[in-house]
Amino acid sequence: MLPLARSVVLSLPLWVITSGVSLAEAPAAAAAAAAFAVRPATFGISLEPPEAVVRFREDHLAAGAPAAASQMACRPFAEGLLLCFTVGTGDARRTVTAGDLSAWSLGLPELERLASARALGSLGPTRPELTQVVDMDATYWLSMEGDSLDMASFLDPTALAARCAGELRVAAPARDIFMAWCGGSTDLDMVLAVGVARINEASEHPVGAAAYRWDDTVPGWVVWGRARH
Asked: What is the per-residue pLDDT for 40?
């Protein structure tokens, strides 16, 4: 089983949505430009299931939010996963919406470039952290800092794979929880696949119960498998 202290479900602050401002309005444009000047340093990434994006839109439209502020800024990433983006840190962290992109005069590719650069820059010897599997002579990698950078390893399929003799497996069971391990051991695959599924099932913000592997022919992440328990 996974270490209980390391598999807790994160309860993140509610993302506050703003509709953005029109650059056609000079005062609002100036305010937006001034705010944007510091925002790239706080851009982050988030993997979300499609149903979460749909629910986000429906909830915010029902609350009277403008259409652009109800649309998360995302793109398809892998089967069952969308790559989305956040801005801000701590309690001020929130999702980036289509309304934000309009207010900032920023395209989604440029947002992805800025957020990805910050995320990749966070990787290092202890991120993700090599973690011991309880009651097994085996380890896996874990990142769960809750700062919108935990999924950074999904953006670099080679860094962790270079440390594996077997095929790398990666998973995003819940928001801000990244897991990865080296394949080749049936027991380890089973234990961690079940761990991914259990974290996903228990989370207030589930992402996906599947584990992924890199496929050079796509190129991209494809589903390796998922546990049923």
From this structure: 80
Q: Nearest Cα to 205, choosing from 6, 5, 8, 65?
A: 8
Q: What is the 3-state secondary structure (H, E, C) of 125-176?
A: CCECEEEECCCCCCEEEEECCCCCCHHHHHHCCCCCHHHCCCCEEEEEEECC
Count of H-run helices and E-run strands, the chain:
5, 10
Taking residues 127-136, report their average pLDDT.
97
Enter the tokens of residue 99: 């309304």
Contact 82, 106 (CB under 8 A): no
* Mean pLDDT score of the chain: 86
Could you tell me the residue ranges of all domains in the chain? Answer: 4-10+123-226, 26-121
Query: For residue 16, which amino acid is it?
Result: V
